[in-house]
Model the fold of this input.
Amino acid sequence: MRVRRLAAGTADLLDPGSSLWSKAETGTFELIPTPLAMQPSAYVRASREQRPFGRVREVEVRVLHDGEHVAFLLAWDDPDRDVEPPGDERFPDGAALLFPLASDAPLVTMGAEGRAVNAWHWRADRPERARNNVAAGLGTTRVTQDASIATSARWDHGRWRVVFRRTLASTAPAGEAVRMKPGDAVLVAFAVWDGSNGERGGLKSFSPAWHTITLEG
Done:
């Protein structure tokens, strides 16, 4: 998937409704439920055996950059706008981008020892900034101090449109954030949580393979 380079202001790249997104290539990616057997909690595994999760089955993706910032627009159908903080059985909607920090980092296990992955995680109850997460295997996800990932979201007529924007060259410590530059080919995967279906943590839809995006030089 080619990422066009535009002479765009960063504010425009953060707007889910900007006309600039019509200039981006569009990719539609299949999502599947994360394997129940791989959930780290026995309670979660037992509680979801008879309750399907991973309700969102595809996500539309567009990506643009301006030489200094990269922006991803994710869009998917969801009839319920779940924006409240976590409660009893209702949780906020969410989405994430996942990048390998090592070329052979496994996707399905959220990395492995010595082969970490970097996740940009947005939740609808904290809509303006994504958390930067690092993981090296199931149950090892940790939030870093990087606060550079700006987000903007819009839900309209049963569809979310969420933008993630970050500088290409992260200032986060080595091993905590993916770094990109014009001309790079970057691996990425996608995940979506449907809050009204009780999805949180490892209960989500995800793209089961890495996908390559190439940033125009």
The radius of gyration is 16 Å. The first strand starts at residue 2 and ends at 5.
